[in-house]
Automatic annotation (TrEMBL):
Organism: Ligilactobacillus salivarius
Domain Histidine kinase per the UniProt entry, residue ranges: 235-447
Gene Ontology terms, MF aspect: protein histidine kinase activity
GO biological process: phosphorelay signal transduction system
Matches recorded under CDD domains: HisKA (cd00082)
Enzyme superclass (EC): transferase
SMART domains per record: HATPase_c, HisKA
TM annotation in the entry: 12-37, 147-168
Lineage: Bacteria, Bacillati, Bacillota, Bacilli, Lactobacillales
Primary site of residence: membrane
Protein's name in the database: histidine kinase
Length: 447
């Protein structure tokens, strides 16, 4: 059977209606209990009873038989002797009966009245309360009205708490369903999404599951395209290597023919161009490998990683005739990352820093810090600041200010570093420091 779906407004009104109906039922229950207790003689009826004693016919036995029908306390006085000849009363209440007898008229004390009726032989004083009370002497210490109020307060509190809890539980259940699909967004959903009885939640769930399937399809399509790109780049690199190898062989043969100075310059230029092509395709292959990177959960010892990394960076600094230094400002021992990808990204940033450092006194530094969420690698150089265009586009694939692509800058290094940071749940920040060079910070999640 298909579940009926209603709006949130309807659901809230339903809760209010449930509270109203259950309150009405609670009042009915209290009245029913009161009625049953009255019939059973456990509480008195607030309706007053006035008995008229017939001067000739009413005997003491008649009075006793009549008072058995009522739950009221009473005292029968003998008018000649003034003694009590029949009774049902509490000792602490005795003076009130005598007061009514002496005055020979009804007497009211608070909500309690002492009604007197007399004939020639007897005086009957009946104690009656205008509010219900227990007939049992022990229970009479407790006000039946107060007990009724306490019952209603507790009952009302319970039905409100239960009704609101049911509403909150239903809403919470829907939010949990939304949270579940949101946290698994992009995964293929093969079964029907959990239906909600609230229209607004059901619409959101339906859209989320639909978008999750669409995103899953897009991710799968992207994965296939990346694999295809990686394959094509690798195949292209392989195809290019064959003619490059032939060119290098021909250059070597030409060098054996005793070429003149100008020919040697041409051959040297050809060799440099071949090397540029090889470097370019090797860089492209590294980038496409990153596109298919899945596992980044390897636990790494930070000190060992920094030690190995700095050895490689020092070699790069020596080749580029750059002064470099290392600062470690963290006590972190372990972190999770893909070592080859992270190392390549940091080397790319460092190499870029060396190439753009001040030519007269090139300075580059590496600083390792952390905050609550990220492990940061900051690479600084004392070169000229990034241009406005470069700051905006430096992280884009193939962007370079070296329009001629001299062989040093392919527009892949910083894009690769940015992609590595994103794959590790982090980011890369480029900052121009006022009169103090350029800082590139790569941050990754620590765990």
């Amino acid at each position: 059977m298909k579940n009926k779906i209603h709006s949130m407004k309807w659901r809230i009104w339903k809760t209010a209606f449930e509270i109203f109906i259950e309150t009405f039922l609670g009042l009915g229950l209290l009245l029913a209990i009161t009625f049953i207790l009255q019939k059973a003689g456990y509480i008195s009826n607030p309706n007053k009873v006035y008995l008229v004693l017939d001067s000739n016919k009413t005997t003491l036995t008649d009075i006793r038989q009549t008072m058995k029908k009522y739950p009221y306390d009473f005292i029968v006085f003998d008018r000649r002797t003034g003694k009590i000849v029949a009774s049902r009363y509490q000792k602490n209440d005795k003076d009130n009966y005598y007061l009514a007898k002496v005055k020979n008229k009804s007497y009211i004390n608070g909500t309690t009245s002492y009604t007197i009726s007399s004939n020639k032989l007897y005086s009957l004083v009946i104690r009656q309360n205008s509010v219900p009370e227990f007939t049992n002497p022990v229970l009479r210490k407790f006000s039946y009205n107060q007990i009724s109020y306490i019952f209603l307060i507790i009952y009302e509190s319970l039905i409100i708490i239960i009704a609101i809890y049911k509403l909150i539980h239903e809403i919470s259940k829907n939010f949990t369903a939304i949270q579940k699909i949101a946290l698994n967004m992009g995964n293929k959903v093969t079964k029907d999404y959990p239906k909600s009885k609230i229209k607004e939640f059901d619409t959101v769930l339906k859209q989320l599951y639909q978008k999750s399937n669409e995103l899953s399809t897009l991710i799968e399509t992207e994965r296939i395209e990346k694999e295809d790109l990686s394959f094509q780049v690798a195949a292209l690199s392989h195809d290019i290597k064959t003619p490059l190898t032939v060119l290098k062989g021909n250059i070597e043969l030409l060098e054996l023919t005793n070429p003149d100075k100008r020919q040697l310059e041409f051959m040297e230029s050809m060799k440099n161009s071949i090397q540029t092509l090889e470097n370019y395709f090797n860089t492209m292959i590294n980038y496409t490998k990153l596109l298919n990177l899945n596992s980044i959960s390897e636990e790494i010892n930070l000190n060992e990683f920094i030690k190995e990394l700095f050895l490689e960076l020092t070699d790069i600094a020596i080749v580029n005739k750059t002064n470099n230094r290392l600062k470690v400002k963290t006590n972190l021992k372990k972190f999770h990352a893909n070592v080859p990808a992270l190392k390549r990204a940091l080397i790319n940033i460092f190499l870029n820093a060396c190439q753009y450092a001040d030519k007269s006194n090139p300075q580059v530094s590496v600083t390792v810090t952390e905050d609550l969420k990220f492990l940061w690698f900051e690479i600084w150089n004392n070169g000229a600041p990034f241009s406005e265009e470069a700051q905006v586009n430096a992280q884009k694939l193939f962007f370079t200010e070296d329009k001629g692509r001299s062989g040093k800058h392919y527009g892949i290094g910083l894009s690769f570093a940015q992609a590595v940071a994103v794959r590790h749940g982090g980011t890369m920040i480029i900052t121009n420091l006022v009169n103090d060079g350029v800082s590139v910070k790569l941050g990754i999640q620590k765990f």
